[in-house]
Amino acid sequence: MNEGMDWMLIEQNLNISPTGAAEPLAELPAAMLLDHEQARTMLEQAGAAVRADGLVLPASFAGLSVYYLFAASIIMMAQSNRLPDLSMDNLTLQLERYGDDHAHLRYLVHRPSGQELPEEPEAMEAFVEQEVTRYIQEVMVPLVEGIAEAAGVKSAMIWNQFSGQYTYLNKLFFMQVQDVQAQARFERIYDLILNRVSPEVFGRRRHPFVHKPRYIDNPANSEEKWMIRSSCCMYYARENGRKCFTCPKMTPSELEERKQELLASAK
Fold first, then answer.
1. How far apart are the first and last CA of the chain?
2. What per-residue confidence (pLDDT) applies to 3?
């Protein structure tokens, strides 16, 4: 049932919703991402929409969309006390354009149903650990590895982005959600995933969500810090593309050049 499920934060920040795109450029049932031929076709369409140089950029974006599904589950459990059904057979991946050379991937949720979390704390934690582990093994790992194989890239390129995104999720939730009970649930779930879900569940030697953030000054405001990404999102791999100011691949000379540009824009 959809009663009591709040999709607003998830839709605005993660592009996942029961409404989906009004006019998608392309769409594919999520389970078909495991079919390399169909996945590659979808990646090629996504790459063309952003004028990408090959498949590395659309593979990066598609991989991040899988992380967003996981993040959506955490937000919904914390905010609405329900585990949403974000299984592959309940999702369609859509490509949506905005602007002349911008597009993003989003998921249409066909049945916005959710299972209520147990009330007793220990039972809730056991339920979350079981369901999170199942979702990682049955949805996240197959999709990430399938996308990487279809694009001909190493899956580490995708997994390495998740730790920074997970750190940002914590900041986002507490900025957007003021409900004390929801915040307490979020903290329990967030810590549980970091401390009780092993790296082996992801098929990794290191936990993909553990992150030691590094920061860089906002050139226009020295009192503001920007978190450096845990890994490059590959957005520069497109026509006239450039690395983000917070990209870990930025060289000192590139940082200085971009810093001067940002300062000039601020003036």
1. 52
2. 59
Q: In this structure, is the dihedral angle defined by the CA atoms of residues 267, 102, 214 and 55, taken in order, positive or negative?
A: negative
Burial 89-119 (b: 16+ CB within 10 A, else e): ebbbbbbbeeeeeebbbbbbbeebbbeebee
Residues 6+ apart with CB under 8 A from 120: none
Domain borders along the chain are 8-202, 215-266
**Mean pLDDT, consecutive 10-residue segments, the chain of 267 residues?**
79 95 95 97 95 96 97 97 97 89 91 94 96 98 97 96 94 95 96 96 95 89 89 92 92 91 81
- Backbone φ and ψ for 234, nearest 5 degrees, come out as 70, 20
pTM of this structure: 0.93
pLDDT tens, 195-227?
Answer: 999 999 999 999 999 999 899 988 888 789 999
- Residue 225: strand pairing partners: 217
What is the Cα gyration radius of the chain? Answer: 19
Residue type, 62: A
CA distances to 159, 214, 220, 234 from 231, in Å: 9, 12, 24, 9
SS3 95: strand
Asked whether the CA dihedral 15, 20, 25, 26 is positive or negative, the reply is positive
The CB-side HSE value for 137 (13 A sphere, CA atoms) comes to: 11
Mind giving me the DSSP string for 49-80?
HTTBSSSHHHHHHHHHHHHHHHHHHHHHHHHH
Residue 101's pLDDT is 66
How many degrees, rounded to 5, is the angle at CA 52 between CA 218 and CA 106? 75
